[in-house]
Amino acid sequence: DTGLITLDIGYKNTGSTISNITYLDGDKGELFYRGYPIEQLAEKSNFTEVMYLLLNGELPNKEQFNHFEREIKKQNWVSEEMRRLLEVFPRSAHPMGVLSSLTSALTAFNPKAVNIESHDDVEKASELLIARFAILCAWTYRNMNGYPLIKGNNKLNYVENFYNMMFRMPNEELEVDPVLINALDKILILHADHEQNCSASTVRMVGSARAGLFASISAGVSALWGPLHGGANQAVIEMLEQIVADGGNVQKYVDMAKSKDSSFRLMGFGHRVYRNFDPRGKIIKKVMDEVLDDLDVHDEILETALKLEEIALKDEYFIERKLYPNVDFYSGIIYRAMGIPTEMFTVLFALGRLPGWIAQWTEHRLHEDPIGRPRQVYQGAVKRDFVEMENR
Ligand code: SDX
């Protein structure tokens, strides 16, 4: 506050670019990818098709889909040097730190993907990254547990292949529950893009300096890691575990989140754009019910989450500020029920968001948008002369 005016700073309502990719209406709670409502895509499409849609602007016909899938499968491997890089990370390393490092390292082994000039260059680099990013995501989980790495299997579709690389143990076939694969496919669709969110804006900013695709995506992974952004799904479970450990007194935490004396916020609630229900939240809640029913899960974390949701939705403070559960409130509950460790939740968010980041980066690059260089409001010292050390 400068005493003159109260500044509401930060990239909050900045029109940072012109885009044809994703449309959000925060008041109506609407989300469209290339004009298609997220509800229809979640119900009728699959993640590979949605990746094609985001990257190319149109839904693929059968031949286009098969070609896209074939080109990704051709890249379903990473070099031995990348495996050796992974080995230097301790098991205790957070998988998002490992993922951003390995993603940036892809540049070292695919130098051509830095100088991207034509749409064809972008298509090749995108297909390579889409294939290899799934491997790297699965590898972060294997590294955390000291499990041997599982190679990509081209007999499987993209989501099954990822699930297989994550969970299959050597010398055994993985029993895959179609309900879980279908749930994972929908969750990845719901996370695939979200216009100029923090991590997508980061990818565009880094790309605006003409940095390469892999380096730009690596920056997006790092931005997503923050608990106010993609890290919220991990923070939701940690918050629910804390409430359960503290005797399950949900009202105490709702009151804490409302108090100005505490910096505590209800993780998984609120959104910069949605001043209504997050449309993805409504869809993912149905997916959560299906998965928990399929796995017959009834535990304190789930009960606490449902109690927290019920109390907060009736509370004046949250109603006044239009704070509703967002996509992150439910996704962590599903991942946890699937046996995925909390540190991996944001890695799954990154896997879902990858096609959106690539589409945003490509749009910026091919539109030849200018380098990002915002200005500031300066409130520092006024001009003054240097003072020699002995006179200070
Ligand atoms: C994602 O941008 C995207 O699209 C992101 C995302 C995507 O797909 O990329 O949708 C993914 O990041 C979802 C959001 C996940 N983050 C969380 O769940 C963390 C908890 N949520 C908050 O930190 C917060 O709601 C934000 C960061 C998401 C949005 O913050 P805003 O819009 O900057 O809201 P604000 O800080 O201006 O708060 C407005 C008021 C304040 O109270 P007053 O000062 O008016 O009294 O609402 C309060 C805030 O204190 N508030 C909360 C709250 N969120 C906002 N109070 C308690 N709990 C909360 N979660």
Give the count of helical stretches: 17
Q: Terminal Cα separation, in Å? A: 31 Å
Report the structural category.
mainly alpha
What is the overall pLDDT average?
93
Instruction: Write the H/E string, N to C.
Output: EEEHHHHHHHHHHHHHHHHH
- Strand content is under 5%
Main beta sheet, described?
3 strands, antiparallel
Number of strands: 3
- Spatial ordering of strands, largest sheet: 1-2-3
Bound molecules: s-citryldethia Coenzyme A
Rg is 22 Å
Shape: globular
Assign a percent range to the helix content: 55-70%
Unreliable spans: none
Labels describing this entry:
392 residues, single chain, globular, three-stranded antiparallel beta sheet, 3 strands, binds s-citryldethia Coenzyme A, mainly alpha
Tell me about this structure.
The protein is mainly α. Helices cover 56% and strands 3% of the residues. The protein has helices spanning 38-44, 47-56, 62-74, 80-87, 95-109, 119-145, 158-167, 178-190, 198-208, 213-224, 232-245, 250-258, 279-294, 300-314, 316-320, 327-337, 345-366; strands at residues 22-25, 30-33, 36-37. It has a 3-stranded antiparallel β-sheet. A hairpin with a 4-residue loop joins β1 (22-25) and β2 (30-33). The radius of gyration is 22 Å and the shape is globular. The two termini are 31 Å apart. The model has no long low-confidence stretch (mean pLDDT 93). S-citryldethia Coenzyme A is lined by residues 194, 197-198, 228-229, 232, 257, 265-273, 321, 323, 326, 328. InterPro entries: Citrate_synth-like_lrg_a-sub (IPR016142), Citrate_synth-like_sm_a-sub (IPR016143), Citrate_synthase (IPR002020), Citrate_synthase_AS (IPR019810), Citrate_synthase_bac-typ (IPR024176), Citrate_synthase_sf (IPR036969), Citrate_synthase_typ-I (IPR010953).
